[in-house]
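Is it possible to get an amino acid sequence alongside its tokenized fold?
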Amino acid sequence: MPRNRDRHERGLRGPLALPHAWTRRPVPLHRPSRTEYFNQCVTWALEAITDVDPRALDGIIVGVEEVPFLQTAWSGDRVPMSAALEPSRNRSAQIVIYERPLEHRARDRVDLRALVHRTIVEQLSALTARPLSDFVGDDPDWDF
């Protein structure tokens, strides 16, 4: 007898997609993991920025780290959400986004997506000395 997801007669669990074309049985949807979703948020934010200004990220490397690693202890009660590093002779300008602090501040996944976008735009503005409006266009969700 084949195993199926209807164990103990409780029905299928989790969100389902449309039935598969060959088997006619509903297929469970793949929900991205926490890290996969965070990386998607970063990708979406970078795409949104390049849609507004295709040259905005020229010469800037954007990276993701799980938590900030600081060689000296920071003062205060806040953990940094991101960092912007000026270019030097040996390296390009960098924006580093910290995954865990951003996730901790977001209420849900939609809020996380907006927070990642806003954080990248703020760091990009700080690095390039350009106003935030140069990177968000006419988006009504932004308040300056």
Summary: Helices lie at 34-52, 99-105, 109-128, 133-136. Residues 34-136 form a domain with the Zincin-like fold (CATH 3.30.2010.20). The mean pLDDT is 83.
